[in-house]
Design a protein that fits this description.
This protein has helices spanning about 15-25, 30-40, 45-60, 70-90. The chain is globular. The protein has one domain (about 15-90). The protein is mostly helical. The longest helix is centred in the last third of the chain and has 23 residues, at about 70-90.
Length: about 90
């Protein structure tokens, strides 16, 4: 019997980072899911985690290694979101 799943799961920051490391630069459907989940949790992950993701996306963007065009667009949107959160946290 298959379980019915909802969208109300709690995962650790480490799990989000592992999913990020797995999907960055890949060319498959998982990119959208991982980007969505990181974006939805962007305010609650640690500043260290945000800076890690920012650096990795930035580094891969610089060498055109973010995957397909649609994936690249998702990663860049996430990059901008995380940079904004980080810059706001520096003002506090």
């Amino acid at each position: 019997m298959a379980a019915i799943l909802d969208d109300e799961f709690t995962v650790s920051e480490e799990t989000l980072l592992c999913a990020f490391k797995y999907t960055i630069g890949r060319k498959n459907y998982a990119v959208g899911t991982v980007v969505r989940d990181i974006a939805e949790n962007a305010e609650v992950v640690s500043s260290d985690a945000r800076r890690t993701i920012i650096k990795e996306i930035h580094d891969r963007w610089a060498v055109n290694a973010l995957g397909h065009e649609n994936d690249r667009r998702l990663w860049v949107q996430l990059l901008k979101q995380l940079q904004e959160i980080e810059s706001e946290s520096q003002l506090i």
